[in-house]
Specification:
With 117 residues, the chain is mostly beta strands. 12% of the residues lie in helices and 33% in strands. The chain has two helices and eight strands.
């Protein structure tokens, strides 16, 4: 399946082949734990869940939202099965939407707990 890999370390964006195995997401984005960001009804961005905690990490911005480490865009899981779909984004569209942040950029991890009444 077609995915798009965003690599802020060498500032490249390229199409990659994704096998459909969830374990391969970690291999493609070089992490142990990953998180998902819904980009659209059809596409999901997978990112390093511990990216903000790593030293010497690199960052990229997608439409003004900053992310640490590599990112992988693939299609959302279909309602008819467990297979991921090809991303609906064209490579040039992703290139146009991503900005690589300068070396040395840092984001501070933040967590907030709220009591619901």
């Amino acid at each position: 399946m077609k995915g798009i890999l965003i690599n802020p370390f060498d500032e490249t964006i390229k199409e990659v082949e994704y096998t459909g195995n969830w374990r391969d997401i970690s291999l493609l984005i070089d992490c142990q734990l990953y998180d998902i960001v819904v980009l659209s009804d059809e596409d999901t961005l997978y990112i390093d869940d511990e990216g903000l905690l790593k030293n010497n990490n690199r960052y990229f911005s997608w439409d003004g939202r900053n992310f640490a480490g590599k990112g992988l865009i693939i299609g959302n899981r279909s309602g008819e099965g467990t297979d991921n779909l090809n991303t609906t984004f064209e490579l040039q569209e992703v290139i146009d939407r991503v900005e690589f942040l300068p070396e040395g950029h840092r984001e501070t991890p933040y967590m907030e707990f709220r009591v619901l009444e």
